[in-house]
Design a protein that fits this description.
The complex is a heterodimer of chains A (146) and B (338). In chain A, 3% of the residues lie in helices and 45% in strands. Chain A is mostly beta strands. Chain A has a 5-stranded antiparallel sheet with strand order 1-2-9-6-7, with no helix packed on it. A 4-stranded antiparallel sheet of chain A has the order 5-4-10-11, with no helix packed on it. In chain A, strands 3-8 form a two-stranded antiparallel ribbon. In chain A, strand 1 and strand 2 form a beta hairpin. The model of chain A is unreliable at 1-14 (pLDDT under 50). The model of chain B has no long low-confidence stretch (mean pLDDT 95). In chain B, the strands form 2 sheets. Chain B has an 8-stranded parallel beta barrel with strand order 1-2-3-4-5-6-7-10, surrounded by 4 helices. A two-stranded antiparallel sheet of chain B has the order 8-9. In chain B, helix 5 packs parallel to helix 6 and helix 10 (226-233) packs across helix 11. The longest helix of chain B is centred in the N-terminal third of the chain and has 18 residues, at 94-111. Chain B is globular and about 55 Å long. Chain B has 338 residues and is an alpha/beta fold. Chain B has 15 helices and 10 strands. The chains are: A mainly beta (146), B alpha/beta (338).
């Protein structure tokens, strides 16, 4: 199932998309450099992290390897393979999260094409554990140093 | 129209999801809007607007009742989900399902809600087992009948059989008015066009829905292969299949059955897609439905449920309060309040 082909509707649908229109920020996590991209849940209801099936990211057309990604929610970081076990942690729909992308080289100043897809499970669907894909695409700038 | 109806008006805060999600309205501000619109009853989805649901903090409970007092509103219904597939690799056990709904019952009681909207597909045996807990907390477990299901669907028939046998005041239905979608919602067909669907396919979908000739298998549990095939035959794209499946899955059910089964209905979702300025819903004939509810002695709430927001938000600024206000004005007229 491909819930949001939506090419014609980028103008406003972006307001509820996975990628938030905020600058990319440099960051360091566990001693490793990288950058942070702000994201949010696309569902109309909160979900336990065990229902986040996957997060796919491309920056300037290049896919980011999943092992370089950490989802940071309410101050705690989770690698993608850990999410399936976190049925007790809820992502509330008003909470922003950050996607930390480990990267030895900093992103060049200026705009970058970021494509992010959130893959979720709607846990109340009884027919099975179906994946729902929420793709979004934005041109995001790298934050200037403070 | 006499004013003898005992039907009460409410709104599910789901209706305001766009403004809430975009942080244009907080929960308190939405409740204030309900007061301005003169809507007495309040329904809330825990997983949508209550932080850390299902673990509601005492602070939230206090704040909630404070808002109800401040704005003079009545809590009516808590909408629950039963998250069978919450755990990766396995479904919930029977005990976990039981505990999950018990938690919802306690939450409803704390919030002062006397109805829980139970998500479709919950087994009759589980509801029967929960009845004593629900009765103890003065909460009705009202399983939602939602398109494409109706009273004559298999699960509903098994539930009615159980309701008759158990005779618990806590076991009943929520009825979603979307089961009476007589005409294809325009908000959906307009969206099809914005998504690039060929106008002749859109026109076909509208006419086929309205004449009940859509090749859709509304048989539950069966894949609807006929509609995708038809769309591809007409030169449609894969994306068109998605939009068509999403936007034409309502039903227009037999109103005669509503008379027969009304005693089992204790809560109603006043689903609407698009209120027209003259006070009529584009697709759902409320002027035919509400008199049946009045004649049948229905005395629960009709909670306005605005569903059009998600169809127009790609291109238009959503004004949920205006749409809910028109729906409530229509209800007042039909209930003899106006």
């Amino acid at each position: 199932m491909n819930p949001d082909p939506a090419p014609a509707s980028e103008a406003r649908a972006k307001d509820r998309s996975f990628l938030v229109s905020e600058d990319i920020r440099p960051g360091v996590r566990a001693g490793r450099p990288g950058y942070l991209i702000r994201v949010r849940l696309t569902s109309y209801r909160s979900l336990p992290l065990s229902c986040i099936e996957n997060i796919e990211l491309r920056v300037d057309g290049a896919p980011v390897e999943p092992e370089r990604l950490t989802l940071i929610l309410n101050g705690s970081g989770h690698k993608l393979p850990e999410l399936g076990r976190l049925s007790h942690l809820w992502w509330w729909i008003l909470d922003y999260a950050d996607l930390f992308v480990e990267s030895a080289a900093p992103l060049a100043p200026g705009e970058h094409l970021v494509e992010g897809t959130l893959v979720t499970v709607e846990p109340y669907v009884t027919g099975g554990r179906f994946s729902f894909y929420y793709p979004s695409q934005k041109r995001l700038s790298v934050a200037q140093d403070l | 129209m006499t004013s003898q109806s005992k039907i009460k008006r409410g709104v599910t805060l789901y209706s305001f999801q766009e403004e809430y999600f975009l942080r244009q309205l907080s929960l308190e501000q939405i409740i204030a809007v309900c007061a301005q619109l003169d809507i007495p009853g309040i329904e809330i989805i825990g997983d949508q607007m209550i932080p850390n649901y299902p673990n509601i903090s005492d602070e939230f409970v206090k704040q909630w009742h404070g808002w109800m007092d401040k704005y003079g509103r009545t809590p009516v219904c808590l909408d629950m989900f039963l998250d069978w597939n919450k755990y990766k690799g396995r479904v919930m056990t029977d005990d976990e399902r039981f505990e999950s709904v018990v938690h919802d019952i306690h939450n409803a009681h704390k919030l002062g809600c006397t109805v829980i909207r139970v998500i479709h597909d919950v087994e009759p045996a589980l509801l029967e087992k929960l009845a004593p807990t629900a009765e103890k907390h003065n909460v009705k477990l009202a399983l939602e009948i939602h398109a494409p299901s109706y009273f004559d669907s298999p699960l509903e028939q098994r539930l009615v059989e159980m309701f008759r046998r158990v005779q618990s005041p806590s076991l009943c239905f929520t009825l979603d008015m979307g089961v009476f979608t007589k005409f294809q919602p325009r908000v959906a067909s307009d969206r099809f066009l914005r998504e690039g669907m060929k106008p002749e396919i859109v026109q076909y979908l509208i006419e086929a829905y309205n004449t009940r000739t859509l090749p859709s298998s509304h048989e539950l549990g069966k894949r609807n292969d006929a509609l995708p095939k038809k769309i591809l035959e007409m030169g449609g794209r894969e994306a068109d299949i998605y939009w068509a499946m999403m936007g034409t899955h309502s039903v227009y059910s037999d109103l005669a059955l509503l008379r027969d089964y009304l005693p089992y209905v204790k809560h109603i979702h006043g689903k609407f897609w698009e209120m027209l300025p003259e006070g009529r819903e584009f697709s759902i004939p409320y002027d035919e439905i509400v008199p049946i509810l009045i004649e049948g002695g229905y005395d629960g709430y009709i909670d306005s449920e605005y569903e059009g927001n998600r169809w127009i938000q790609d291109a238009f600024t959503v004004d949920s309060a205006a749409q809910v206000g028109l729906h409530q004005a229509m209800l007042k007229r039909l209930l003899g309040e106006a």
